[in-house]
C-alpha cells in the first residue's frame, strides 16, 4: 500500500472518493482497484492484501487512545479518521506489519490466539 498525490479524505465515504481518498481509498487507487461502491472497496482490499483482514487484537499505536483494533484494515481507517495520520505515516506503519504478515503467511493460531487470550480473558 502506498500514498497518493491527491488530498487525503476522512470518514467512511472517503474510501470511494476519487478526489479525496482516505488511506485505504488511496491504496486502492494506486493499484487501479478503487470502486464507486463503498463495500466493494473492502473486498478489493482483502483480495489485494489478504493479511490486512487477518484477525488480531492490538492496542492503537497512539498514546492515550484506548481503541483496540481487530485487523489491520480497521486500524488503517482508525488512524486515518480518528487521528488524521497522513497516508505516508500510515504507509510506514503498514510496511512495518506487512513484512511480518507476509513472513507469517496465513498464520492462523499461534501468537494470535495468545494475543486474543491476553486481551479477552483477563
Ligand atoms: Zn487510536
Description of the structure:
The chain has helices spanning 23-30, 38-48, 72-81, 87-104, 111-120; strands spanning 58-59, 68-69. The chain is built from five helices and two strands; from the N terminus they run ααββααα. It has one domain. Helices cover 47% and strands 3% of the residues. The model is unreliable at 106-122 (pLDDT under 50). The chain has a two-stranded antiparallel ribbon. The protein starts with 22 loop residues before the first helix and ends with a helix. The protein has 122 residues and is mainly α. Zinc ion binds next to loops.
Domains (count): 1
Could you report the average pLDDT, rounded to the nearest whole number?
A: 83
Number of helices: 5
Shape summary: globular
**Low-confidence segments:** 106-122
**Cα gyration radius (Å):** 14 Å
End-to-end Cα distance, whole Å, is: 35 Å
The major pleated sheet works out as:
2 strands, antiparallel
How much of the polypeptide forms β-strand, as a percent range? under 5%
- Which quaternary structure do these chains form? single chain
* SSE topology string: HHEEHHH
User: How are the strands ordered across the major sheet?
Assistant: 1-2
Fraction in helix: 40-55%
Q: Tell me the number of strands.
A: 2
Bound small molecules, which ones? zinc ion
- Based on secondary structure, the structural category is mainly alpha
Amino acid at each position: 500500500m502506498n500514498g497518493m498525490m491527491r488530498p487525503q479524505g476522512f470518514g467512511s465515504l472517503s474510501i470511494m472518493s476519487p478526489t479525496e481518498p482516505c488511506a485505504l481509498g488511496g491504496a486502492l487507487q494506486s493499484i487501479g482497484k478503487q470502486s464507486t461502491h463503498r463495500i466493494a472497496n473492502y473486498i478489493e482490499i482483502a483480495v489485494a492484501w489478504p493479511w490486512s483482514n487477518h484477525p488480531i487484537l492490538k492496542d492503537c499505536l497512539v498514546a492515550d487512545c484506548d481503541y483496540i483494533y481487530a485487523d489491520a484494515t480497521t486500524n488503517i481507517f482508525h488512524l486515518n479518521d480518528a487521528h488524521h495520520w497522513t497516508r505516508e505515516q500510515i504507509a510506514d506503519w503498514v510496511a512495518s506489519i506487512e513484512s511480518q504478515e507476509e513472513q507469517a503467511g496465513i498464520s492462523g493460531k499461534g501468537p494470535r490466539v495468545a494475543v486474543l487470550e491476553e486481551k479477552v480473558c483477563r
